[in-house]
């Protein structure tokens, strides 16, 4: 595998502190050279919403079957999702038949996927979308279906033959850290050898952490994105824990993200049951700040117009997909507020103010403009636009001025600062 040079550019800011140097890209990291995921992957993934429901007799509309994916493909194409960038329709665990075929190849459950994965891939491609699939580096998938250990080359070739465009590679049932690391690397090379462009989505660091700190520089050389932390669930507790983990580890994980390789905090659960409206805004805003893959796990057949508008918000998506490709970070935490910022192309910045207090009403927070972007966000002045919770032009701000915002409990105000 050829390697390309890193994505970090020295234009971020002066080296005001070690933290600035680290978060703004002083380290440099090589990326997997498959030319994919130059901005974070966008699409849909079945796991959080549909889990491992294989009972198509009892629950024909929500079991893991080709019908579910074909319906989602239709909606992704017809309801504006594809138009704003959601492109990869991804199958998670529980698509397989319990056994490999006589030639050792994985096969889809024939009842639930009568046209096979290649038939489904053709359908998905006919809608102008791409198809993702799931497998596991160990002996079994997390839900107990056949694992890829000992079959990496065969499985990579099978996926390529079927016309698959993304592989999520899980890390259950792997006997040792060495096998885990070697397996993730081997599969990256095996996918590369097929000659097909297949985004490689890893869970390598998540399964490494119990043993030792992952080598993110190395992971980036093999994976297009990588899960670091536990599975998201449909709850505010889960979103808070993911944000907490990310900010606590930002000095290790932020510098390594960039075009071709991203930290993956798991799927967007917007449009489901567990998050209030303000909490859904917080997930969308912070996933944009964190340059996260935007993979929704929801039911596009039943989604409120409000959740749809949030997920399809072009200004938030533009922050997430910003071509500079630098991940944002938390830069202040006080009085139950968290402040995050992300450098964007053309010297713009995104700023998120999160009100973590879950009692009372909206609280105001005042920030001096000069404290944003290491003092560089607004010289000599800038135009500030509020993106979330509602779009609003806030106007010109000088470097010396301050900005006072009202933030709802567990909600977020997302701003964009453009130099004027
Ligand atoms: C693990 C992964 C999840 C999902 C399930 C499927 O828990 O982290 O994202 O893929 O396995 O079994």
What does this structure look like?
This protein has helices spanning 18-23, 47-50, 66-78, 81-84, 116-126, 152-162, 177-194, 204-208, 216-222, 236-248, 250-253, 277-289, 305-311, 314-320; strands at residues 3-4, 31-32, 42-45, 88-90, 130-136, 166-170, 199-202, 225-227, 262-264, 294-296, 329-334, 337-343, 349-355, 363-368, 381-388, 392-398, 402-407, 412-419. The protein has two domains: 13-22 and 328-419, Immunoglobulin-like (Sandwich); 28-320, Aldolase class I (TIM Barrel, Alpha-Beta Barrel), CATH 3.20.20. A hairpin with a 2-residue loop joins strand 11 (329-334) and strand 12 (337-343). Helix 3 (66-78) packs parallel to helix 5, helix 6 runs parallel beside helix 7 and helix 12 (277-289) packs parallel to helix 14. With 420 residues, it is an alpha/beta fold. Strands 9-8-7-6-5-4-3-10 form an eight-stranded parallel sheet. It has a six-stranded antiparallel sheet with strand order 11-12-13-18-15-16. Helices cover 29% and strands 22% of the residues. It contains 14 helices and 18 strands. The structure holds alpha-D-galactopyranose (GLA). Alpha-D-galactopyranose (GLA) binds next to loops.
